[in-house]
Amino acid sequence: MSTYDGTLIIFSGPSGSGKDTVLNELLQKHDDVKLSISATTRKPRENEVDGVHYYFISKEDFEKKIDDNEMLEYAVYGDNYYGTPKAPVDKWLTEGKTVILKIEVQGAEKIRKMYPEALSIFIMPPSLAVLEKRIRGRQSEKEEDIIKRLSIAKNELERACEYDFAVINDDLDDAVEDVASIIKAEKLRYKNMKNIISEVKKDV
Amino acid sequence: MSTYDGTLIIFSGPSGSGKDTVLNELLQKHDDVKLSISATTRKPRENEVDGVHYYFISKEDFEKKIDDNEMLEYAVYGDNYYGTPKAPVDKWLTEGKTVILKIEVQGAEKIRKMYPEALSIFIMPPSLAVLEKRIRGRQSEKEEDIIKRLSIAKNELERACEYDFAVINDDLDDAVEDVASIIKAEKLRYKNMKNIISEVKKDV
């Protein structure tokens, strides 16, 4: 990733962690942070908009993109494909932007190998009780789907240790501020401040 | 440093960077951040209080502490000794606190070797013109002292590259917030969140 000046942030969290809410707030407050939009073959939930929350595409289209190497990573999760189109990510990084990849833990593992300088953040619920309450709060699902989702979420929590940072989403504002601090601290690393420091040292 | 849970922060910046003002603001806003107080043999400036800004001690006392291994590091700077008493730093780190060591660049180099997990932050002025203005603003010094101080400060700027983070102190509030973000991000590292994560995963 040495040719890029931007920072890639791998952003994961189980169902019920509230990672989407955290991300939405973060993006509203920080214009310079870009969200990579994933593609998926699953059906949109109520209120989900194509090209905003996901690119909702058919299984056939998804498989064609895989064949054409247009997916940075993809994973099969439940009965569906989830993946990250490559082109916009590389474009933003070259422009020096902070790019957030919201991906499942399986995908995160692959991205970490391709972009070793990426930072990874895992969003967690404050407790298992809250996790279950949040998952049950989505009234669109059948009991068997809820139980399946809960079981997957609990397994995913065990993989927090693979991430650089963990953020507990109890109070939304605090969680958003935590993520913003991680992004800001990265910008303040000496290696990312070189251009600014050159300006400081210029004799007038 | 694996036996410590706290974070050691090496904090440096040339004369005129405003590092003391940044630190004072930071400490007022963050009770959990502790400042390691240095010892020095130089005379106090106006408004400097013994045991608050420095421990002002005699050359003889300083040399005795060196002999007794009670100094974490020390350096001769100008005509004076500057050093860091070891005991309070280790005590705070064992208690899990964030401890800030405000030290000269020479001392920073030594601390970095003894505490490889320490983070280091370099505070910079926004420009050389501002640096000179701030140094000249201290009316207590003779012109030859000012010129000497300015020359040392410019040399120190060249060593920013040895630090993990660089913070430009143009607007004071922004600089304080930058340092706070660096400290917060470090607390959110997975390795520092292990205890909290164990609580999250407890079944009720």
Main features:
5-stranded parallel sheet; about 20% strand; about 45% helix; about 200 residues; alpha/beta; 4-stranded mixed sheet; 9 strands; Rossmann fold; 8 helices; globular; homodimer
- Give the number of DSSP strands of chain A: 9
What share of the residues of chain A does DSSP label as strand, in percent? 15-25%
Number of helices of chain A: 8
Superfamily (CATH H level) name of one domain in chain A: P-loop containing nucleotide triphosphate hydrolases
- Biggest interface and which pair forms it? A-B, 36 and 36 residues
Cα-atom Rg of chain A, whole angstroms?
18 Å
CATH architecture of one domain in chain A: 3-Layer(aba) Sandwich
Give a description of the structure.
By secondary structure, chain A is of the alpha/beta class. Chain A has a domain at 7-37 and 98-200: Rossmann fold (3-Layer(aba) Sandwich), CATH 3.40.50. Chain A is 45% helix and 21% strand. Chain A has helices spanning 19-29, 59-67, 86-94, 105-114, 128-137, 143-157, 172-187, 190-200, and strands spanning 7-12, 33-36, 39-40, 55-56, 71-77, 80-85, 98-102, 119-124, 165-168. In chain A, the strands form two sheets. Chain A has a five-stranded parallel β-sheet with strand order 2-7-1-8-9, sandwiched between helices. Chain A has a four-stranded mixed β-sheet with strand order 4-3-6-5. In chain A, helix 1 packs across helix 7 and helix 5 (128-137) runs antiparallel to helix 6. Chain A starts with 6 loop residues before the first strand and ends with a helix. The mean pLDDT of chain A is 90. Chain A binds chain B through residues 122, 124-129, 157-158, 160-161, 163-168, 178, 180-182, 184-186, 188-190, 193, 196-197, 199-204, and chain B through 122, 124-129, 157-158, 160-161, 163-168, 178, 180-182, 184-186, 188-190, 193, 196-197, 199-204.
